[in-house]
Write a structure and sequence with these properties.
homodimer, Phosphoribosyl-aminoimidazole Synthetase, Chain A, domain 2, 13 strands, alpha+beta, 11 helices, 60s Ribosomal Protein L30, Chain: A
Chain lengths: ~350, ~350
């Protein structure tokens, strides 16, 4: 293992970025000067989004491998560009590293980021690398492009529009629950082994992975979310322009309420229509949790939530992996969840909120 | 004092950003959707730069007021845009806050950021606000614009070009030394008062500011650096296009070596030509430090370092606050500092490096 201090800031930046080749015509100058230079494609406007992930708040390195963390940190930003109906093009990556990180650890983190960039055709054009007194901080900014007429905001939903989601919901949250449970089990077993001086068992615990069989999908959803570029392409190919769209990072309820508030409309969604994966339901059952609550409030699925005019019903019904879960109403009719038994509840945001009191 | 947890993430974002009015024609959509939307000005390309500041590494809140910290965090990014000969237009601001920050404290930090934006005509169009287990982290990204033919990189310096710097050097570093000295004095006095149970003195120490008389300039240089928009404008007005340029964040030596390396040239600069302020020299004397070493390696002055063709000598000599400190040579002649006594030394980078071993 090599220490970052041996390389210094410029040495580390060189090591991380020197293999990077710019893929996009618009990326004129990448890492290596005071700024990156981007030549916007004619007829497009620029989309900008940024996210900061803090150790201990957004991720726990005891069970998140650094390569996955890098991939996810990039993916969640790409997801925001797709949520505007745009195409991501450039990324800047800022890392603050505490002393306990080796050069090899940073290599892994960066490799995950670059892997996501490769997958989605994005160029890393700049960033900052510095030290941190304590945890790891990752701040990523992504630039994308879209023709102005293609951009979809949160405020365009209209009465009678259909409410659609891609993929399925709650899986990432269930993956997190599983990881946290297994981590707690490991910690307890390790502590017991330590107290009884059983060094053999301590070593064994450190070298054994839990058996993830039957849970692979929810783990993957938590650790390696994929932004839904495919849905954006499918919508374009089908000639459907959503009236509003956003990605589901904090949970379906929270995001749908954002669309309703900004569009000045109400909504009516049906519990039975909310798409769930089998593994999500099984895990919720095992943990004695309500699977609908998880799907509504779990967050981190990075699926797309969007509305389309009622007249697009036929077209949208034929799209793979897109589900109509309800419709937009007049604002005065409120925001309603219709449960499986026919009862109605007001939709409330209980999504993840890092600054809210517990 | 109000707790951030009472507002939550969306409440805090709303509080911080709801008064923001977009100034630039190119800023089409600011805070409030998945992305900001920017319409690039016809005929320009986009410049992107980003910087992350970490508590305890880049700043010490025991002696840096939050308003100044915000201003500086913004200013250092704007400086990178000017260093490309561009104009800053948009900014995203990501904050990670630990529980000890009150809403009022965040207001102050943000007010400093917005003040710098107002001063330099920049729009805050997005960001992220989250919590941190430990210190404060501030990550800012700035977008700017320039006509492609106006952009100045680090790699264009040519043999016989004049090497110029704006303003004066070493002042910000001397300001830091002063702040750290006074902070150490305060801590020691407070600890002595605490040990002798002198609560009256403890209170008095907490309510007294050190006497900064005679040091105002170096303090201001450390706490509230100003990016040199005026120099970029003056160069344009004089019809001078630098062959290379960067801003001095890590120290003159370090930055000049970047230009030499990237331009494949050598340099020869003269100690007696390095511009110094009287307060910088006086403070160095008081602290028994070599003022030239401080000016060469101190960093954080955010002055501009640039090269111009020898034929521009007359024009550049007439620019206010611009100083010719030497000239570019062939690469094989090395990088030389000519001292006051005529001796010659090889220029070495000893600038601030947050990741380097002490």
């Amino acid at each position: 293992m090599s220490e970052i201090a041996e390389l210094g800031e410029f040495g580390l930046i060189k090591r991380l970025t020197e293999g990077i080749e710019l893929r996009n015509e618009s990326s004129k100058k990448g890492v290596g000067d005071d700024c990156a230079v981007i030549a916007p494609t004619e007829g497009t406007v620029t989309l900008v989004t940024t996210d900061m992930l803090m150790e201990g708040v957004h991720f726990d390195l005891t069970y998140v491998p650094l390569h996955y963390l890098g991939y996810k940190a990039a993916a969640v930003n790409l997801s925001d560009i797709y949520a505007m109906n745009g195409t991501p093009r450039q990324m800047t990556v800022s890392l603050a590293l505490s002393k306990r990180f080796s050069v090899e650890a940073v290599d892994q983190l960066y490799a995950g980021i670059l892997r996501a960039c490769e997958e989605y055709g994005v160029d890393v054009v700049g960033g900052d690398t510095t030290s941190s007194l304590t945890g790891l901080a990752v701040s990523i900014t992504v630039l994308g492009e879209a023709r102005p007429e293609d951009i979809v905001y949160r405020n365009g939903a209209k009465d009678t529009d259909l409410i659609c989601v891609s993929g399925n919901l709650g899986a990432a949250y269930m993956g997190l629950q599983l990881l946290e449970r297994e981590n707690a089990v490991y910690k307890q077993q390790f502590e017991e082994a330590r107290q009884t001086g059983n060094t053999h068992l301590m070593e064994e615990l450190n070298n054994t992975q839990p058996d993830w069989a039957g849970h692979e999908y929810i783990l993957q959803r938590q650790l390696r979310p994929e932004p839904r570029a495919d849905i954006v392409k499918a919508l374009a190919a089908a000639g459907i322009r959503p009236t509003s769209m956003m990605d589901i990072s904090d949970g379906l309820s929270s995001e749908l309420l954002h669309i309703c508030t900004q569009s000045h409309v109400g909504c009516r969604i049906y519990e039975e229509r909310i798409p769930l994966d089998y593994q999500t339901a099984a895990m919720a059952e095992e943990l004695n949790m309500n699977v609908t609550t998880c799907a509504l409030n779990g967050g981190e699925d990075y699926e797309l939530l969007f509305t389309v005019p009622l007249s697009e019903n036929d077209k949208v019904s034929q799209l793979e992996d897109v589900h109509v879960i309800g419709y937009i109403t007049q604002e005065k009719l409120g925001k309603t969840l219709v449960c499986r038994d026919g009862t109605e509840m007001e939709l409330k945001a209980q999504g993840w909120n890092p600054l809210k009191a517990e």
